[in-house]
Amino acid sequence: MNLLQLPLFIMGKYSIKDLEKISGIKAHTIRMWERRYGLIEPQRTETNIRFYSDCDLKRLLNVSILNHNGIKISHIAGLTDAEIKNRVLDLSIDGRSSSVQIESLMVAMLELDETKFLNGLSSSIIKLGFEVSVETVLFPFLERIGVLWQAGTINPAQEHFISNLIRQKLFVAIDNEMQSPVQNGPRIIMFLSEHEHHEIGLLFYNLLARKEGMNVVYLGAGVPLEDLSLVHRLRPADVFMTSFITAMDKQEMEDLLREYHKRFPDIPFYLSGLQMELLQPELPEGFTVVNKVRVFKERLRLLRYEA
Q1: pLDDT tens-digit profile of 107-140?
Q2: What phi-psi label fits residue 222: left (phi over 0), alpha (psi between -120 and 50 degrees) or beta?
Q3: I need a surface site. Which of 157, 166, 170, 305 has the fewest CB within 10 A?
Q4: Could you tell me the residue ranges of all domains in the chain?
Q5: CB-CB contact of 242 with 269 (8 Å)
Q6: Please, what is the average pLDDT of the chain?
Q7: Nearest-CA neighbor of 212 among 305, 302, 301, 307?
């Protein structure tokens, strides 16, 4: 089966709280739009529990895009589906609003529409530049779908489909950067822990580190502690960097961070990822959260200065 023929096969079921998380529209507002304007029609299970389909979610996302750009709900309610899509397409091509871009990417993900996704991302890159697009559009987009994927409210095929398209873009950018002269700055070893496999954020920081002249050793996902120790013996790190996206217990994270500190007591660690913000773990000495591009670049420049 062609991947682009899958949307009807993987129809999702969403609660009103799911719609709230994805669209940013409060649940009570969604209910009001249902009652007053009939913008979406929930279905019910055999036990009378309300749920929404992919079609409902896509329509709500499109309505949200128009509403966030100053079009009144009363006017949107009078538009046909085709007119709504055309208005959204115009705004998406314009590309000045990150919220429009994020919601357009959400629709592309739900439809498994590669062309729509890449066109939306490309228009953002043209308007904002690659780095700004990743930080202000792709990262918030990935946080949204990551939370929903872990909650089981979107199909893993949709998340994998979009993640692989983004990875391809990053690999091309990294490959272009690697054609530059060999970097002789401080060495940063980048890795994900043994049970972590979401590497898009770390790939982006890999790109930024290379642009800053760092000597990058990129190990990728699922790296056991013993393997990390072996690499450090062969190519000693000036700094390590890792990321935490997959849901985990706070105590489990703190135990792991302490183990890293015990194994590499004199090497600083840079930490990123959604779980750092959600869990707010106690950090060992020398460990720093760098969830912003600006903070990451400042740290790298300080490291180069101290070297």
Answers
A1: 788 778 888 888 888 888 888 888 888 888 888 8
A2: left
A3: 305
A4: 3-172, 180-306
A5: yes
A6: 83
A7: 301
* 133, burial (CB in 10 Å: exposed 0-12, middle 13-18, buried 19+): buried
Could you give the residue ranges of the DSSP H alpha helices within the chain?
16-23, 27-37, 54-68, 73-76, 81-94, 98-111, 114-128, 130-133, 139-151, 156-178, 200-211, 225-234, 250-263, 274-279, 293-306
DSSP annotation of 242 reads E
CATH superfamily of the 180-306 domain: Cobalamin-binding domain (3.40.50.280)
pLDDT tens for 218-227 read 999 999 999 9
Over residues 69-97, the mean pLDDT reads 75
What is the CB neighbour count within 10 angstroms for residue 283? 16
The answer to whether residue 149 scores a pLDDT higher than 70 is no
96's CB contacts (< 8 A; 6+ apart) are 127
Render pLDDT for 170-229 as a digit per residue (tens, 0 to 9). 998 899 888 876 667 899 999 999 989 889 889 999 999 999 999 999 999 999 999 999
Check for a shared fold between 3-172 and 180-306: no
Place of tokens 């120790």: 229
**Segment 79-95 mean pLDDT:** 71
